[in-house]
């Protein structure tokens, strides 16, 4: 006969085997209840920590991506700066005649290299177009005669 919860309260009438069996059942239920309570406690503590850790990891990943993007941007800017300095150095090494052939004065080297020559180029283009489109003067009286290639 296995003792039930109702008759365990009367422990004086149990035999030593029944008492040992009842004791094992009580200990088993106590161990199960303690394990359940510890799991619930661990869940209550660990789940918020996991959420915080996941958020921290996401924040660290975002920060790392931002740092990497900034480093790439600085790297590109540094490379561009080095290229421009090298170009300016090469232009300064040229003589004035070669610079004139290119269409740059010595005083305009930095202006051209660092990309601030848009106005100069636009103004020179406008001037060049004006020079090409010379209107005929009224009353000049001279007309250009057509050249006849076949006349000899």
Order of helices and strands: HHHHH
SS field, number of helical segments: 5
Q: Determine the N-to-C terminus distance.
A: 145 Å
Helix content estimate: over 70%
**Largest sheet data:** none
Secondary structure tally: strands: 0
Class derived from helix and strand content: mainly alpha
The percent range for strand residues is under 5%
Q: Regions with pLDDT < 50 over 5+ consecutive residues?
A: none
Q: Quick check: average pLDDT?
A: 78
User: What is the CA-based Rg, rounded?
Assistant: 48 Å
Shape: rod-shaped
Top keywords for this entry?
152 residues; mainly alpha
Can you describe what's shown?
- The protein is built from 5 helices and no strands.
- The protein has 152 residues and is mainly α.
- The longest helix is centred in the middle third of the chain and has 78 residues, at 16-93.
- The protein is rod-shaped.
- The model has no long low-confidence stretch (mean pLDDT 78).
Write the layout of secondary structure elements.
Layout: H1 5-8, H2 16-93, H3 96-102, H4 109-113, H5 118-132
